[in-house]
Amino acid sequence: MPLSDTTIRTAKPKDKLYRLTDANGLCLEVAPSGSKLWRYRYRFNGSAKMLALGAYPAVTLLKARQMRDESRQLLVDGIDPGEQKKASRQAQKVEGVTFETLAREWFAYNAPRWADSTTYKAKLYLDNDLIPVIGTRAVKAITRPELVDLVRKVEARGTLNAAGKIRQWLHQIFRYGLAKGVVDANPATDLNVVAAPTKAARHHPHVPFAELPELLEKCDSAKIHALTRHAIHLLVLTAVRPGELRQAPWAEFDLDAATWTIPKERMKARRAHIVPLPRQAVAILREIHQLTGKYSLVFAGANPDRPLSENTVNKALRVMGYAERQTGHGFRHLLSTELNGRGYNKDWIERQLAHGDSDEIRGTYNHAAYVEQRREMMQSWADSVDLICKNQTKSPLKLVG
Predict the structure, then answer these.
(1) Cα Rg for the chain, rounded, in angstroms?
(2) Domain covering 5-92 in this structure, CATH number
(3) I need a surface site. Which of 77, 86, 131, 222 has the fewest CB within 10 A?
């Protein structure tokens, strides 16, 4: 007999779950707890299946029969109503995914594989340029013209490098979305076709070696923080990337062995890098240790858990009058120019600069083999800086390795 509202309403729970049957596979499960759930029992491809239709009284008898009939029609059309329900639920879930949700999941997935500098920049651009603009948008609804407009606003600030990175990361985020199944197409493809024309390539500016004494003298007399002054001197003496220096923890240094070992996670090339420290660099680091030795970071900022800002060194150089003439990164170019001019082995110089090697095996061997050669080279470099700064000679000595 078909069920009635009265029968359903007055059904009492028992010690075990039982069912009240209606017609054509519809039934009501009454649980010991007293809950009443609608089920539709059917067969598909020879297998017995059961589909949940909801709880009574939220789903009335009339509504349950309507849902049963819709499921029966799917069966007539050769569709499994259970699988159809799963697909609909997934589609609804996908429709609700916002750009912020997808972007932060992409970031969390990739951050462990990136160098610290890349992680920092990716989060900076996400938080400042992407999420505030399209973060709340359903990711499936975002269009290519919308992304073009976003990137053009970044270009309008004159930050073409940032715009290029944002185009690259948007492309990666939507590729990640494709793999996750939350988008059907990548609207971030071909954004470079309408990119603003790039400016002429320009190397990081640096002063010639002969002007280095004047720069360091101005550094020592400028009204800048002591840590910033030390950072500039260490960039001169080691030629590491500014980000590698300012984010360095004390744990990476063995001052007694005059060696700084940067783990691969912090390196651009994702390869551990050994930096031999000349005596002058060790002396500076011991002086810094009196200031920040109680913290984990060598160049601890106002918040000791965070390093100095990435703009600190370049801002100081501008204050010293070296805008457009010298950057923190430019000290690497200065060292490369000088040491190549002095006839040092190019492989030693490239390894000191932590440049990659296309031959992985050769690169690994060189990483191990060149430390002592570079130690001698960098000590000679530091001594020549001292020498010219003391005005004992008007030009650097010819130091051939």
Answers:
(1) 33
(2) 3.30.160.390
(3) 77
